[in-house]
Design a protein that fits this description.
Elements lengths: L1 H11 L4 H6 L1 H20 L2 H4 L7 H13 L6 H22 L8
Helix pairs in contact: 1-3, 1-6, 3-5
Length: 105
Amino acid sequence: MLNHAREAFELTKGRSRADLDSDRLLNLALVRLLEVIGEAANSIPKEEQVNYPEISWAQIVALRNRLIHGYDAVDFDILWQIITQDLPPLITALEKIVPLEDSFE
């Protein structure tokens, strides 16, 4: 989850929102990375999630579901905002709880 969040954020560096429309590979990569982040969040047991209330588990899973089941209805302005504004705090939170050796797998 942490590595995929980092990768998604890194892919936006030096890019603009317009690149999401013009670069299909960027678009597909970012959508897929967010799907995987959502899958990973969904695999964390609820009993464990409550220990980390700073992470919006339900929203992350809901985003995954929206991307998987309603791709044609994805608002790419919101997607860009999620990646550029919401992922950095998620990355910071995950870095505090993921052991260093696990973050590079």
